Prior knowledge:
By secondary structure, the chain is mainly α. 92% of the residues lie in helices and 0% in strands. The protein has helices spanning 3-44, 48-76.
Amino acid sequence: MDPSWINALVGVASFLTLLSSILIGYLFRLSKELSDHKLHVARYMATKNELKDLTVRVERQMESGFDRLSELLKKEK
């Protein structure tokens, strides 16, 4: 083989190695960001059961508030 072709193949191989290392670094960084986001969601977002409990409490408070309002309106009559 001609030495210029060998130099060209070495250059292409080096370029592909550079691109793959950049891609691997990017994927590791992306993986860390995804992990950090999952941790943030786990810490600060309500779970389905917590949301159900909150909904039940709000409905109960609304019902008792409407009952008090209706009692007040009945007393005024």
